[in-house]
Automatic annotation (TrEMBL):
Transmembrane segments: none annotated. It comes from Larkinella humicola. This is Peptidase S13. It holds the Pfam family Peptidase_S13. One of its GO terms (molecular function) is serine-type carboxypeptidase activity. Keywords: Hydrolase. Belongs to the peptidase S13 family. One of its GO terms (biological process) is proteolysis.
């Protein structure tokens, strides 16, 4: 009897392994997956076990897969709403400190809570930045990306997403600038050869544009400063906003803005770097200090100490190549997220294959089956998330491609073909 039970258990183990053997074979032999560094991990949620691992213990540059870590940090640190300001009243003044909330005057995240609050206060408005101890860029960011919309500066009180939106809807020599505050900071330059429509001076808010205007749209980061933030606020509120270096008051009250899911959804689907970076500032703000490194270290220590491999996690967005994660650690993270967020809500926040976000042009189907976060930069393409098979299985996956010389689009298509096959056969 015991021998029979032993044989049955052995048979179950062997058949379980053989079920996924074709996937292992592809990972070892398919030239589409072997001409560069590929890591892959697949986890069966129903069986609660890892069913495929290929170089899953090796470290890869995650790019925007880092945002999954930032998302989890928000889930375990913040409540349902985003803290927007910390404030106290002293005599005739309302003194306020930022929290890193990126929604203030952000066209992509419309919310008027802070504006209504400040506009309706009778006190003198005073803005202080003494609770912020970070730099304007994250560790390892490319310094010459300062003109690109994905590299907006970090700040305790972001406004307008910390960028200027330029646009010309037609060929008339008209340039739309938002916020209008920057209109007088733009110069038309005819003799210069432009690689882009608008180029900002690296160290100040002076913007050059070609004299010959053609239809275009461009978001260009501005140089943030406490004084500029106060000016932009004053310009919108039509009242004075002063700045002062007033030490943070730990008894300060908190003003909340919009639902946290609004921020999570855009960050995960559109892969908004500014939102991801400021989410980590928000996470650190619960300790009354705005510092991304502090937020990251706290989450690693309190909530991610049990990952299979210790992450090298340095920023919120994944812009830095200093970030290094393993596929099997990402699987562990996906398990934690899946246990924390109900499936229906979670799948609406992530990019949906064939439908929304960065993977809407692949996985075309009437019934979406991939819900994931992509991550890409030169030589890097990763996709991690959840896959629903034709049989209804929920599989957690992390596929990481590094060190390839081809295009990201090609690697995206290779990944889609590989995952679609898993969807169809399992």
């Amino acid at each position: 009897m015991r021998f029979t039970v032993y044989l049955l258990c052995l048979w179950l183990v062997l058949t379980g392994c053989s079920t996924y053997r074709p996937i292992q074979r592809q990972l070892r032999q398919n030239p589409q997956l072997t001409d560069h560094a590929t890591g892959f991990a697949l986890y069966d949620w129903e069986k609660q076990k890892m069913v495929v691992q290929h170089q899953a213990h090796l470290y890869f540059t995650p790019a925007s897969n880092t945002k999954l870590f930032s998302f989890y940090a928000g889930l375990v640190t913040l409540g349902d709403s985003i803290p927007a300001l910390r404030y106290v009243t002293r005599s005739d003044s309302l003194i306020f400190w930022g929290t890193g909330d990126p929604s203030l005057l952000n066209q992509n995240l419309p919310d008027t809570t802070v504006l209504r609050f400040l506009r309706n206060r009778a006190e003198r408005l005073v803005f202080s930045t003494t609770n912020y101890s970070g730099q304007r860029f994250g560790p390892g960011w490319a310094w010459d990306d300062f003109n690109d919309d994905y590299s907006a500066e970090l700040a305790p009180l972001p406004l307008y997403g910390n960028f200027v939106r330029f646009g010309s809807p037609d060929r008339i020599a008209r340039l739309d600038v938002e916020p209008r505050f920057f209109r007088d900071s733009v110069s038309a330059v005819s003799e210069r050869k432009f690689s882009r429509n608008v180029q900002r001076d690296e160290h100040r808010n002076r913007f050059d544009r070609p004299a010959a205007v053609r239809p275009f749209h461009q978001d260009v980061p501005f140089r943030w400063s406490p004084q500029l933030a106060a000016q932009l606020l004053a310009d919108t509120l039509h009242r004075e906003v002063a700045t002062a270096s007033i030490p943070f008051d730990h008894s300060a009250k908190t003003l909340y803005s919009q639902p946290a899911d609004s921020l999570y959804k855009r960050m995960l689907q559109i892969s908004d770097n500014t939102l991801a970076e400021h989410l980590m500032l928000l996470c650190s703000s619960v300790q009354d200090t705005l510092n991304s490194t502090l937020g990251i270290q706290t989450v690693l220590k309190k909530h991610l100490a049990d990952l299979p491999d210790k992450p090298n996690w340095v920023d919120g967005s994944g812009l830095s190549r200093y970030n290094l994660f393993t596929p099997r650690s990402i699987i562990s993270l996906l398990q934690k997220i899946y246990k924390t967020v109900p499936q229906e809500r979670l799948f609406q926040l992530l990019a949906i294959g064939g439908s929304t976000g960065t993977i809407q042009r692949v996985y075309k189907t009437d019934r979406p089956f991939v819900f994931a976060k992509s991550g890409s930069m030169t030589g890097v393409y990763n996709l991690s998330g959840y896959l629903i098979t034709k049989k209804g299985k929920v599989l957690l996956f992390s596929m990481m491609h590094n060190n390839f010389a081809g295009s990201v689009a090609d690697m995206r298509n290779r990944t889609a073909a590989f995952l679609t096959e898993i969807h169809q056969n399992y």
